Amino acid sequence: MGDSAAATATATTTTKATPPTLPVAGRRNVLITSALPYVNNVPHLGNIIGWYNAIYICGTDEYGTATETKAMEENCSPKEICDKYHAIHKEFAKLFPQTDGNNWLSENTMQQLYCDTCQRFLADRLVEGTCPTPGCNYESARGDQCEKCGKLLNPTELIDPKCKVCRNTPRIRDTDHLFLELPLLREKLEKYISEMSVAGGWSQNAIQATNAWLKEGLKPRCITRDLKWGVPVPHEKYKDKVFYVWFDAPIGYISITACYTPDWEKWWKNPDMVELYQFMGKDNVPFHTVMFPSTLLGTGEKWTMMKTISVTEYLNYEAGKFSKSKGIGVFGNDAKDTKIPTEVWRYYLLTNRPEVSDTLFTWADLQAKLNSELLSNLGNFINRVLSFIAKPAGAGYDSTIPDAPNAESHQLTKTLAENVGKLVDQYLDAMEKVKLKQGLKTAMSISSEGNGYLQESQFWKLYKEDPSSCAIVMKTSLGLVYLLACLLEPFMPSFSNEKSISHFLMRKEISIKQKDLGIFYLRHRIGKPEPLFKELKDEEVEFFRQKFAGSQAERVLKAEADAKKVAEQLKTTKISEGNSKKEKTKPAGSTKTKAAEAEVTISRLDIRVGRIKKAQKHPDADSLYVEEIDVGEESTRTVVSGLVKYIPLEEMQVCSLLLFLFYF
């Protein structure tokens, strides 16, 4: 989860032409939030993992030291890193005085690390040192939290701390700050946790992380920082400070909703009608089960408190851990550049969702799940059904959905309906309990049932030998295809939408009964079926494994080294002069010497090393880049290259030097 009440307000459930969704009396109203991604880098895949009246609230994280640190690394302002600034903490400005007025805030002097070289107090993430937790001793622990053991820290607790900017040792100085008095809110907080953790079915890892905080004893928590980038504190004494991101970040959910609709209180101050579900990684649990609830309780007002929290462990990458700050792993833009379809990424990440313990992303595992589960199970079932119906009359049904009377008397179909009915019940139970991985696994089991049903029925024989039974089998199977499209839509929406399954079915009106899959209504004909998934080959897997090995910085260095290697090779290549005399024609059957083969005549070719100033995808060709190149002339040159297959766009944009051949 990222940090910011100044998150970019993007309400995913509305457009300008669509009125905002609001709670409806008598219906189940669900409010959902998830991690606000940091803007200090592209999100990696570990970030990225019944009908209700629901809205989903999210945004982008712009405040905090992660953004400021990245800005310092790139020698620009935090505002430039964020591209655009959204000051949407208007409602937050009201919330803070309410908490302060109820005496849940206090002032105190604390010791903080100060760097004399940089002449500034060091924010949590601007300090690195050895973790003080016994048995950990991680040498790159941050000032706010150890990535290895997960322990929340104060910068002064680090052993041998270093300023992340200049690598010098900071000293301790006194500074005044505001604190949230968690001890005074303990009784209210513990009552909320004990009741809601049961009613909302909190995941075990969420309960454990919360109880660990309570067991250690609640202490006053500092909620201000000596930074320039962040939400300014609306208090005269502290006007030069900003709020600690984990105090203001969850309030960003409220602010984003306020940007979505002026009636935001109908969602956030309506606990009798609204259920709040929150999704996040395990390291952010205490901020949502302790800090945020304490802030709301401290106002004394009637807020919609979190009912259910779904927590994930870490998704690790090959031999290490995904890290946005260190550039390790496969990032969102990397996934796009692989050309592997979105629904494949979504399926793999959700089947591999670390709900109970850490899980591991490997390219071999992605290949196995695509080829054996999506292609051989789901894709195979749907393709067999649709392709057979689409065959011309005499071999199939000429794309016409067959009539199938008396389906209830067909024993194999009755058995299928009973089995599928039980699986649908299991699916709904898993989804209600936010066990998404189990829900997806159950849906895929229905596809397996369909494959077994087709195989046992031997429909290809029934077509000639028992046409009525064949019609029952194919119409029932088609109903199963539509059922799968519905059940898989939360996981793979692009798989179920009008561009794929629904397009093939060309449905008009559907009515499926759980125990009788043969009863449904479709438009008369289906569309032309096409393969839904493509095999991922061994050589492709190895290519991706090598391409995305190491960190982003190491990949850039490798690209530069490869370019330098090519340049060195060209230096040793014999090049003929442009005005040299033409060689005499050699007799037929003569052979070229190795020296002649190495010779390149480039009378109209200018070879230079240039610096890439800007790179972007060609608007009309997926395999080409358009680049602005500085080759030492007064103005840059615009060139087109076919490097898309070899160098990702983000690496093109940071490459220092590449060799260019200009033809004139």
From TrEMBL:
EC number(s) per entry: 6.1.1.10
GO cellular component, one term: cytosol
Catalysed transformations (reactions): tRNA(Met) + L-methionine + ATP = L-methionyl-tRNA(Met) + AMP + diphosphate
Residue span of region Disordered: 1-21, 574-593
SUPFAM superfamilies cross-referenced by the UniProt entry: Anticodon-binding domain of a subclass of class I aminoacyl-tRNA synthetases, Methionyl-tRNA synthetase (MetRS), Zn-domain, Nucleic acid-binding proteins, Nucleotidylyl transferase
GO annotation, biological process: methionyl-tRNA aminoacylation; post-embryonic development; reproductive structure development
Low complexity composition-biased segments: 1-19
Cellular localization per UniProt: Cytoplasm
Transmembrane annotation, as ranges: none
Domain TRNA-binding: 601-664
Keywords associated with the record: Aminoacyl-tRNA synthetase, ATP-binding, Cytoplasm, Ligase, Nucleotide-binding, Protein biosynthesis, RNA-binding, tRNA-binding
One GO MF term: ATP binding
Record-stated family: Belongs to the class-I aminoacyl-tRNA synthetase family.
Protein name: methionine--tRNA ligase
Originating species: Ananas comosus (Pineapple)
